[in-house]
């Protein structure tokens, strides 16, 4: 029964070992635009817009998973054809002492409710933190920026997404109706 649930889940599922895909379901492959035999034994890095983002999110995820054994966020990911899309990611470590040694992940495509704007890597980082409810000061601390720089990124996001204020920006980032 567990195999049936894994293979036919309505979201993409992957089992990883040290951030390398061991096994994934058909929805996972479909979400990222790969054939079912192409992703096993490949690094999750191929699914990120850049190596820098793969490493940065890995550092954040490792810290959180060491504390709780779990990680969750919403971020921009990349399909095989290079198209970017918003994705809800949830992870559970199977090896608490070494969180990435073995983990199970779910990936839900949010592109229908949250289109991607043309954002820089830093703007994507700020957008993800804003979507989590972080303040400019908290974003500055996490990204090691000055609060004014974080505010400038938020202001550029507002302009790019046509939001009049932070509440409207967060609504646009999270796909909530305005």
UniProtKB/TrEMBL annotation:
What start-end ranges are recorded for coiled-coil regions in this protein? none
The domain of life for this entry's organism is: Bacteria
- Positions of the HTH luxR-type domain: 112-177
Q: Which InterPro entries match?
A: PAS (IPR000014), PAS-like_dom_sf (IPR035965), Sig_transdc_resp-reg_C-effctor (IPR016032), Tscrpt_reg_LuxR_C (IPR000792), WH-like_DNA-bd_sf (IPR036388)
PROSITE patterns reported in the protein's UniProt record: HTH_LUXR_2
Q: What's in the keyword line of the UniProt record?
A: DNA-binding, Transcription, Transcription regulation
What is this protein's record name? Helix-turn-helix transcriptional regulator
